[in-house]
Automatic annotation (TrEMBL):
<dbReference type="InterPro" id="IPR016024">
    <property type="entry name" value="ARM-type_fold"/>
</dbReference>
<dbReference type="InterPro" id="IPR045210">
    <property type="entry name" value="RING-Ubox_PUB"/>
</dbReference>
<dbReference type="InterPro" id="IPR013083">
    <property type="entry name" value="Znf_RING/FYVE/PHD"/>
</dbReference>
<protein>
    <recommendedName>
        <fullName>RING-type E3 ubiquitin transferase</fullName>
        <ecNumber>2.3.2.27</ecNumber>
    </recommendedName>
</protein>
<dbReference type="InterPro" id="IPR003613">
    <property type="entry name" value="Ubox_domain"/>
</dbReference>
<feature type="domain" description="U-box">
    <location>
        <begin position="195"/>
        <end position="269"/>
    </location>
</feature>
<dbReference type="GO" id="GO:0061630">
    <property type="term" value="F:ubiquitin protein ligase activity"/>
</dbReference>
<dbReference type="InterPro" id="IPR058678">
    <property type="entry name" value="ARM_PUB"/>
</dbReference>
<dbReference type="GO" id="GO:0016567">
    <property type="term" value="P:protein ubiquitination"/>
</dbReference>
<comment type="pathway">
    <text>Protein modification; protein ubiquitination.</text>
</comment>
<dbReference type="Pfam" id="PF04564">
    <property type="entry name" value="U-box"/>
</dbReference>
<keyword id="KW-0833">Ubl conjugation pathway</keyword>
<dbReference type="InterPro" id="IPR011989">
    <property type="entry name" value="ARM-like"/>
</dbReference>
<keyword id="KW-0808">Transferase</keyword>
<keyword id="KW-0677">Repeat</keyword>
<dbReference type="Pfam" id="PF25598">
    <property type="entry name" value="ARM_PUB"/>
</dbReference>
<dbReference type="InterPro" id="IPR000225">
    <property type="entry name" value="Armadillo"/>
</dbReference>
């Protein structure tokens, strides 16, 4: 009815401001609207009657059952078609607006009825419709709605609003009884326990957080859980999968205070810090860990002791839930008979024992099978890599690789390298572990030996994987692997050359490795590879060269390497957009290093390609190309002036010509270059030339 009156009033206000033709139509519409009567739906009428009866019964019967109250109110909700938390929130906001309007007109009775309806809606959401009491319902209603009279009777409130509400309901003389959610008995006795807001729950443990912390992605987690996540080698946010800029955690005191207040308000047990959670698929091989930690012999008569340089220290064993181990076994190809938790644990325990046995011929087949199983299990499953890495099998693999190298067992060396490769893929912790247990020196021995090409390339593949970790780049660069990798570019297979070049690319990212790369002839190798025209290697070669431009010595080596600038100019003409962006960056750095480098580039005829890039290239490429063209323009102006002065000196032998040169030529030079010139500049120089382009 009020909507109808508001619409009529709005149309009347509009009538004087519109043309007469439309004003007449509006007038007729107003007359028709006044004759229309709006009726409520039958379901709305029934819901209203049920609600009135409910309020009347509560007023007449102080011992009215809480269950009956919630059941009746549930029928009212169903008849009104309220099914989702969004609709409940809308009803709550409507009741709050109605409450404000009734307070303005000082309609005390209507105000108290609205308060009672808000209370009923709150209780219904929490105890009869748990699916509505999540984020929107439970959090908002609990914070915005006043407490019920029964709550006031069961706990003392310090809120002035609660005390006012209690007195107002007493004035109205009816007593609705929602369950006393402020008491422990009500929480334990209710069939639907109180659901905490989603913001209070850790996404990893799915429990209320006792020590919430914030990570660099902005998400909040339980401290114990997120630290466990980081310990497993992850550097991403578990919820958003965003790569983290750092692994520092910051206490979230705001959320912790809200959790404490919420628990005290609803007498909810305060959360306790969870025990260190096991990784979904992490464990430890107990027997092998004990042997290594205690530096004891393995329980075999023919076993050999493990030296500290061959095996790293392994942490304490952790328990893996039975269901997780069964799932791991089913996913990763364990035999059907080995898919129980005990069998899987025993299998991994046996792997460690077998790999650390003495190298007797009778054990060779068994050891090779164990390594092959590890390689196969880690090949396609990142979870298994975490599990096997934490189980202590990386030190065992390195130990077995060392034994295989001492006995020149090519098959064992190749399989061991491939197993280490698979264990390290997409796992930062395992990459660091391989380097820390001393595998680098062992792999270098393999590269420097007369082992078959397939074995050496398997070792290079391990270097490729571990070089992806930034923390390993300085260690690998100073280990002496760079000469072996550069040498392999001449003798390896296509796949081996690609792996070696990619490893060199990874190492070139760290500036501390630039001097070693330059010393070992990296630029000459790049020049040779670019000359071959292999498209798969071109981008990597140019990127390495671009990284090395940070070193001033690189500029001289590029200029002195026969054909290097020429092949770069060719790639600049026909390369991909990314390659062109990298090459124009190289040219720009060279041009800033000196005029001689600028003249060398001009002699290669790069200006047409630069003009094309400045128009059609990427934004970054266009910017660099325009800067380089401007630099070339200034350099050519200087060279033109120098050329004119030299011609004057060569053609004139009289003092008059010299006087003319002293006045006009020097003035021209000052105008073009801004400085005076000494005659020493015209001395014969091998690097001096006049470009024609």
């Amino acid at each position: 009815m009020r909507i109808k009156e508001f619409l009529i009033q709005s149309l009347r206000n509009l009538e004087p401001n519109i043309p007469d033709k439309f004003a007449q139509q509006v007038s007729r519409f107003i007359n028709e609207l006044q004759g229309i009567s709006f009726e409520s739906n039958a379901s709305d009428k029934d819901a209203g009657k049920e609600l009135l009866l409910l309020l009347q019964k509560e007023k007449e019967d102080p011992d009215f059952s809480v269950d009956v109250e919630l059941e009746v109110f549930g029928l009212v909700i169903m008849k009104l078609g309220i099914k989702s938390s969004k609709e409940v929130t809308a009803e709550k906001h409507a009741l709050q607006r109605l409450l404000c309007s009734t307070r303005k007109v000082k309609d005390k009775k209507t105000e108290l009825i609205v308060l009672c309806l808000l209370h009923l809606l709150q209780n219904y959401c929490k105890f009869c419709k748990p699916e509505l009491s999540e984020e929107t319902c439970a959090a908002e209603l609990a914070c915005s709605c006043p407490a019920s009279p029964s709550e006031m009777g069961s706990q003392t409130s310090t809120s002035e609003q609660d005390s006012d509400f209690s007195s107002e309901l007493c004035f109205l003389e009816f007593h609705p009884r929602g369950a006393a959610i402020g008491t422990k008995d009500s929480v334990s006795g209710s069939c639907h326990p109180l659901t905490p807001p989603q913001e209070f729950v850790c996404p990893i443990s799915l429990q209320i957080m006792s020590d919430p912390v914030i990570i660099s992605s902005g998400q909040t987690y339980e401290r114990v859980c997120i630290e466990k996540w980081f310990e497993e080698g992850h550097d991403t946010c578990p919820k958003t999968q965003q790569k983290l800029t750092h692994l520092v955690v910051t206490p979230n005191y705001c959320v912790k205070g809200l959790i404490t207040s919420w628990c005290e308000r609803y007498s909810f047990p305060l959360p306790r810090a969870p025990s260190p959670m096991p990784s979904p698929i992490t464990s430890s091989v107990v027997a092998f860990s004990e042997c290594v930690t205690e530096k004891a012999y393995l329980p075999h008569s023919d076993s050999t002791p493990l030296s500290s340089c061959e095996v790293a220290t392994i942490g304490s064993p952790r328990f893996v839930p039975d269901g997780v181990i069964k799932r791991l076994g089913m996913q990763n190809g364990f035999p059907v008979s080995h898919r129980t938790s005990g069998s899987v644990m025993n299998t991994l325990n046996d792997y460690a024992k077998v790999l650390c046995r003495s190298p007797k011929p009778s054990f060779r087949c068994e050891q090779l099978k164990a390594v092959e199983d590890i390689r196969r299990l880690c090949r396609d499953n990142s979870d298994t890599r975490i599990y096997i890495g934490d189980a202590g099998l990386i030190p065992a693999l390195v130990h077995f690789l060392n034994v295989a190298f001492r006995f020149d067992d090519d098959d064992a060396m190749e399989i061991s390298c491939l197993a280490l490769l698979n264990v390290a893929i997409n796992n930062c912790r395992n990459k660091a572990e391989i380097v820390n247990v001393g595998a680098v020196s062992l792999l270098l021995k393999i590269l420097g030996s007369e082992a078959p090409l397939s074995v050496r390339e398997a070792a290079i593949a391990v270097f490729l994987t571990v070089s992806c970790l930034d923390e390993n780049k300085p260690t690998l660069g100073s280990s002496g692997v760079i000469p072996h990798l550069i040498s392999h570019l001449d003798s390896g297979t296509a796949r081996g050359v690609k792996d070696a070049l990619t490893t060199l690319f990874n190492l070139s990212i760290f500036p501390g490795n630039h001097a070693c790369l330059l010393k070992e002839g990296m630029i000459q190798k790049i020049n040779k590879l670019l000359t071959l025209g292999d498209l798969e290697l071109t981008e990597k070669c140019i990127t390495i060269l671009h990284n090395l431009m940070l070193l001033e010595e690189t500029h001289r080596v590029i200029a002195e390497t026969d054909g290097c600038l020429s092949v770069l100019a060719d790639v600049f003409d026909t390369g991909t957009p990314k390659e062109k962006d990298l090459i124009v960056g190289i040219f720009l750095t060279l041009s800033k290093a000196g005029a001689d480098y600028t003249r060398l580039m001009l002699n290669e005829g790069v200006i047409p390609s630069l003009v094309m890039l400045s128009v059609n290239g990427t934004m970054r490429g266009r910017e660099k190309a325009q800067k380089l063209l401007q630099h070339f323009r200034e350099q050519r102006q200087k060279d033109t002036v120098l050329h004119d002065v030299v011609e004057v000196l060569c053609s004139s032998k009289s003092s008059k010509a010299e006087d003319l040169l002293g006045k006009s030529a020097k003035a021209l030079l000052r105008k073009k270059t801004g400085t005076g010139l000494s005659l020493a500049i015209f001395r014969k120089s091998k690097s001096f030339s006049f470009p024609r382009c």
